[in-house]
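In this section we walk through a basic example: taking a raw amino acid sequence and producing a predicted 3D structure, encoded as discrete structure tokens. The instruction is simple. Fold the sequence below.
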Amino acid sequence: MPRLRVAPSTALSVAGVLAAVLALAAIASTVAAPASGAARPAAATRTAASGAAEKTIAELRELEDRFNKTYEANDLKAYFDFYSDDMTQLYQQGRLDLPDYRALWEKEIAGGGGMVEVKTADMVFHVGPSNDSAVAAYRIFTKQRHPDGTTTESWNQETDVLFKKNGRWKVVHVHYSDAPKAN
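The resulting token sequence is shown next.
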């Protein structure tokens, strides 16, 4: 097998590139941890073993649980406290900011509508390297009562983007879309 000859200055460049690639790989895989009960990939388990990352994931799990329970309880004051004032949302009908979203839900509740049941599944977290930004992605089941008395049930996909601001996690963006239909 032929040997690769590398000039000393090139060898330093190769070593530098290798170090940079390994550093980027470590940053890119900082934390990708599924919710408890779900199988964790070996790399995610090793990475999530760091104390700060595990603490952040625990905070996020607890926050997402409370967030979705207040949604189910139709507790608008508590529910909207989870959001950052500059929150944006993309959902099936388009883009909303916080005042528009709040007005939509206040009208729904005032008219006799609201959530009847909310369940989540397959929650996965991705945490930024400085532990102050995160993404929670999951499936969400909702059973909703509408002001006209009808109810609808559906599974959707939700992605919450969170920033830690002044020591508190806040939802800064939500992407909500229909889940694929089961075959």
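Looking at the output, two observations stand out. Residues 34-178 form a domain with the Nuclear Transport Factor 2; Chain: A, fold (CATH 3.10.450.50). Residues 51-72 form the longest helix (22 residues). In the next section we compare this with other chains.
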